[in-house]
Amino acid sequence: MARVFNFSAGPATLPETVLERARDELLDFRGCGASVMEISHRGELFMAVAAQAEADLRALLGVPDNYRVLFLQGGARQQFALVPMNLLRGRERACYLDTGHWSSQAIEMARHYCEPLLVASGSQSGYTALPPRDSWRIDADAAYFHYASNETIGGLQLHQPPEVGDLPLVADMSSDILSKPIDVSRFGLIYAGAQKNIGPAGLALVIVREDLLGAPLPGTPNIFDYARQAARDSMLNTPPTFAWYLAGRVFQWLLEQGGLAAIERINRRKADKLYAAIDGSDFYHNPVDPACRSRMNVPFTLARPELDARFLAEAESAGLVALKGHAAAGGMRASIYNAMPEEGVDALVGFMAEFERRHA
Ligand code: PMP
After folding, report:
1. Could you tell me if 320 and 5 are in contact, meaning their C-beta atoms sit under 8 angstroms apart?
2. 32 CA distance to ligand 1 centroid (A)?
3. Which of 75, 77, 258, 346 is the most exposed place for a label (fewest CB within 10 A)?
């Protein structure tokens, strides 16, 4: 069976070698006669898997010692709630930057717990550009500053973390974590759902500076309290062990690729090729300001939308799948996370040129 090039936004394609390795050790994990899914999370074997995954993640991102790494459940949306529940620390306001669908969703969730201050919104540009930095209204007394580093639907990415003074910077990195090196010490907290650049769905990663922990909102259940999860090595619940194991395999694969600087070079090349194909044609269009175009999710439209269904059907026949844009955006979207091979992008670019030649 041939694998397709899968441009899904998430759950998304995983490195083939990771899947092969998981397949090879599925029935008998390290000679224990059972799969990694079937053993106790508190047993020596799984504890070693969990510790190695954390160590490899720390190595990849250069996570400083005063940060805790949590492997939680509930996806990224749960973090929309857990961030205010844990980080308000007695304050009533938190700053939120609105750059599109996901940051807006985080703001809506925050309203249940605090007064989210809208620092600036890209809504006037249809979320195709960042609001100019000198228009931002930052409240220095707010509890933290939240933003989404990459808007998965709109295809807008902040390539550098914003300057926010002394406020703890909180980033939803669900769709660009591990795609390039970052300076973790600039952040108070980073979170990400796993199903794009980390592993299978069912896991959310949280990297949080220790001094921000320990003062959750009154009534916060222990499983939602970062400090208590940290004290129990993310095992207050039975963790999603298979997802954690597979995430560990992905981290090893990234290390084998040469780490995040190496993966960033490939990611830039892939994105440059795809945007060049779009910009070099009158048939395809991406509306996002080139200064903040996403290197992970590339939305584009056809000059003749009546051809959308045909484009998708022919692409699928060519082994290029899941290119349909999000329902909220329409058109197409190619998600080109770490695990999308460069040949996948080359094949897509070739297909697009050929489709245009036949139909423009
Ligand atoms: N934030 C971003 C940037 C996302 O892309 C997504 C999912 N696509 C979410 C949050 C929500 O993630 P989950 O479904 O894991 O809750």
Report:
1. yes
2. 35
3. 258
User: Which CATH architecture group holds 17-256?
Assistant: 3-Layer(aba) Sandwich (3.40)
Q: 172, 123, 178: which is closest to 151 by C-alpha?
A: 172
Average pLDDT score over residue span 212-221: 97
Q: Is the CB of 157 under 6 A from ligand 1?
A: no
**What CA–CA distance (Å, rounded) separates 147 from 135?**
16
Establish whether domains 17-256 and 258-359 are of one fold.
no
Give 289-331 pLDDT, tens digit per residue. Answer: 999 999 999 999 999 999 999 999 999 999 999 999 998 888 9
243 CB-contact burial (10 Å; exposed 0-12 / middle 13-18 / buried 19+) = buried
> How crowded is the C-beta side of 217, counted as CA atoms within 13 Å?
19
pLDDT digits (tens, 9 = 90+) for 238-269: 999 999 999 999 999 999 999 999 999 999 99
Q: Where are the domains of the chain?
A: 17-256, 258-359
CB of 77 within 6 A of ligand 1: the answer is: yes
Q: Is 100 in the pocket of ligand 1 (CB under 6 A)?
A: no
- Residue 251's SS3 state is helix
pLDDT of residue 328: 85
Largest CA distance in the chain: 63
Percent of the chain at pLDDT > 90 equals 98
* pTM (2 d.p.): 0.98
CA–chain centroid gap for 94, Å, is 22
Q: How far is the CA of 206 from the centre of ligand 1 (A)?
A: 14
Give the span between the Cα atoms of 360 and 350, in whole angstroms: 15
Query: Which of 50, 73, 48, 21 shows the shortest CA–CA distance to 195?
Result: 73
Give 112-128 pLDDT, tens digit per residue.
Answer: 999 999 999 999 999 99
**Residues carrying an active site annotation:** 102, 172, 196
Rounded CA-CA distance 121/232 in Å is 38
Ligand 1 closest atom vs CA 204: 15
Q: Does domain 258-359 sit in CATH 3.90.1150.10?
A: yes
| C-alpha to C-alpha distance for 345 and 219, rounded to whole angstroms | 48
